[in-house]
Amino acid sequence: MNQYTFDSKLKTTLLAGIGLGVLCMIATWFADPAQIAEGHTHMRFWTNFLHNTVFFTGIAFISLFVLAAFTTAYAGWYVLFKRIWEAYSFFLIPGLILLLILGVGNITHFHHLYHWADAAEVANDRVLLGKSGFLNNTWYTGGTLVVVGLWIFFAMKLRSLSLEEDRSGTADYSIHRKIRIWCATFMPIAAFSSAAMIWLWVMSVDAHWYSTMFAWYSTASWFVSATALTILMLIYLKSKGYYTQVTEEHLHDLGKFLFAFSVFWTYLWFDQYMLIWYANVGEETIYFKTRIDQFPVLFYGNLIINFVLPFLILMRNTTKRKYGTLIFTSVLLFFGHWWDFFLMIKPGTLETAEHVAHMHAESSDHGDHGDHAAHAASSFIEGFTIPGLLEIGTFIGFLCLFLFVAYSQLAKADLIPLNDPYLEESTHHEVQQDLSGAGGHH
């Protein structure tokens, strides 16, 4: 079967998941912890909104980027299932809408996610004043609109050329040459613009802190997440009778990417941590000190989930060929890198919320409340110390929305691009086996 049918049962399931996410978001609006409720920031709601929006929009972006990179590199092994990455990239459209809501919220002060969004605070802060040329409401909203809008343009252009190739009736290399040119054009634009966006969306929640490794680190996290979700979707679609030509050879290569980029992500994690620890510069070390001292479960759990476990599981060649192992590791890593973004966002936004609550209490002459709000985090803060049930429910809602968009796109075209000139290479893709038998497949 080469035409995917988005059946009503799956639609109902995904819509129910989206509904669960909406209910959890509504509940989260009224569920700010006591430490920050005084400021009326609804910070738990807005941090969950930011966290999931950036996480899933990033997966859409990196899917488009990887598609462009593989095409430019003359790769062929992925062609059988490249429509999945084309479908993922279309979540950039709802992602842009959600990000613009955050941008408007900055301008109207409807939320307090970013310390730098308050002009009065910036005027009294030399560090924020020095960064105000980049960290400002106009650039956040306008830059997001232009950059993500540009990504959407490339996503739609590559998709249209891919479908034109389908309609051509033959493996027309002239169309593929156009695709390659557009991909090569997109890559440098994407590389530079994505770094700027991740600095704005995520790194600037800790506005006094900076890291030259942050963009690499976040992008690696997106890529592992996208690879894990691709493996899960391929196995699901194969169980429904689709993608019969996708073999364990293709899944093995995806498993290798999952393993390799988990190690690469860990290298970036260590590189960032080690350099900051060694330099011992106060405005840099505070980022890690806060997370180690006040969020130890998040901090150490991040390393265990995203490095230790996948490293031990995927090190053997055979584990990357077994559906059970791939499914378990993919679920683990997909959740693990969602956890990673949770750790990036929550501590900095909690500090901002406590500051707002303290200022609000002072202005209301409630000194006792102000003192309570000003204290550092207690041992457990609901929705911040670790993800709570409302966070998990919101995550499920966003995931179902992402999958609804992806499956809707998959249903609009053939699953396999029959006229792609590299299809034959992908169909006969085979991974070289270990002659000692460690590969476990002969």
Return the string of H and E elements: HHHHHHHHHHHHHHHHH
For the secondary structure, the number of strands is: 0
End-to-end distance: 28 Å
Low-confidence stretches: 366-378, 435-442
Radius of gyration: 23 Å
Q: What can be said about the biggest beta sheet?
A: none
- Provide mean pLDDT, rounded: 91
Fraction in helix:
over 70%
Brief overview:
With 442 residues, the chain is mainly α. The chain has one domain.
Topology:
Elements: H1 8-29, H2 34-37, H3 43-72, H4 82-89, H5 92-108, H6 119-123, H7 126-131, H8 137-167, H9 173-201, H10 214-239, H11 248-279, H12 282-294, H13 296-314, H14 323-363, H15 367-374, H16 389-410, H17 423-427
Helix pairs in contact: 1-3, 1-16, 3-4, 3-5, 3-9, 3-10, 3-14, 3-16, 4-16, 5-8, 8-9, 9-10, 10-11, 10-14, 11-13, 12-13, 13-14, 14-15
Tell me what you see in this structure.
This protein is an all-alpha fold. It has one domain. 72% of the residues lie in helices and 0% in strands. It has 17 helices and no strands. α13 packs antiparallel against α14. The model is unreliable at 366-378 and 435-442 (pLDDT under 50).
Throw out a few tags for this protein.
17 helices; disordered C terminus
